[in-house]
## 1
Amino acid sequence: MKVDVTSGGNFTAIADNDNNDVGDFTLDSAATVTSTGGSIDVTAFNITDNGTFTANISGSVTLTETSATSAEQETQVDQGTNSTFVQDFTSPTEAGC
């Protein structure tokens, strides 16, 4: 976004609607997103926040990146590699040796 945007209610932007890890949201340094009557919610694979988000006093600003962090990626790899196949295959009781 390169221009100012003002919403009288909630402002919602979804750049990665299908969660396929494609869709960036960038707020330019000269731009402001303002919600005068609600909250601001932005969801994207990557969010670049160079500008200003302003919600009214009863609203909130929520920026959600759907990209996995290094810790999440490591956990996913660990979960995928915790296999007992080799242990079961080489175990004397399982292999019948």
## 2
Amino acid sequence: MTSPVDAQKPADPPPRSVFVAMAALSVLPVTVYLPVLPDIAEALGTGFALVNLSIAGYAVATAMVEAVSGALSDRYGRRPVVLASVSVFVVASVGCALAPNIVVFLVCRMFQAAIAACFSVAMVAIRDTSDDRDAVRRIGFASMGWALAPMVGPALGGALGALLGWRSIFAALAVLGGVLLLVAVRRMEETSLHPGPGRGSFASSFRKLLGSPRFWAYTLCMACSTGTLYVFLGGAPLVMSGHLGGSSAALGFYMAMVPGGFILGSYLAGVVASRLFRSHVLVCARVLTCGGLLAGLVLATSYEISPLPFFVSCMFIGMGNGLTTPVVTMGVMSERDDLAGSAVGLSGAVSIGGGAAISSSAGLLLGAGSPVRDLLALVLASASLALVAALFAALVDREPRA
């Protein structure tokens, strides 16, 4: 049965490829320039530690952009936010490419984070143009681009840096942004059913969302799932360095199994979304992650675990998160039709902050040479919290909305 909201959905939504491109470009700048950080420091005559601020500063700026961009898209529409964020990104990328000193580079790098708005707005636009189950499927496929871009980013950046110098990386980002801007101008029609300024303050919108048990259930699940990934990313090099003989190439190969698992999980979300209820997919995703990590912990406790089974068990982190991301995105947007953008943006910011807090806490318990079982126990603990939140979400979804 078609709901009144579904019946009003735009008849000619933007192509799925537009949403995939928006999702991919929103995260490509995070990793694409990492191989040339030493070159940037040398060219701009500064220390590596100062250039490294571009990583932490970009993360903070991204969280801020995610928090406000969704709310802006509710108020002014999806299309203006996309056009504005991509335009700022293009100008900032040109600024990075031409930066004469480290101050200009860092300022422009922070403004590059404007592109992060494209991910949350793409998710909301998919929801605007799809029914609930089809939206989970389409978000799952778009998330595959979001997961793949950071994987290919270092290889792309390294090749450009070696051939044309570090500035060419930011020139390439400006070109990609320009192409996306042209595509958005031509193909990104307004998808919001009720944009307009008369909806109260941003603080009022956020208070409504923060008072929703459904919003918190899904957001906490995503925060703990993100924390699980962050703990793994920070801990795996510490506990596995001795097992791999110090080979960074081997470590990179094994760690790529986790984002590969995310892509697989996103694909599975697209396949099963139309067959299972939303919260059922979420619970299955978290059980899958916990099961894989528990198997790895049992092996690590009983035997001297080798790198392959360790990373295979951790691949379930990626699979679970790939299934979780589109479901959580739909879950937080389902509370209020008129605050869908605010919900996905605020949820993303809380998830990043919560994941970072979990990772920082785990970092206090790990060090070089820590046993593999300690890391697996920590990621399993975070994954178990995500499972509890998923069960809470399933319980909340059984209750009628007020």
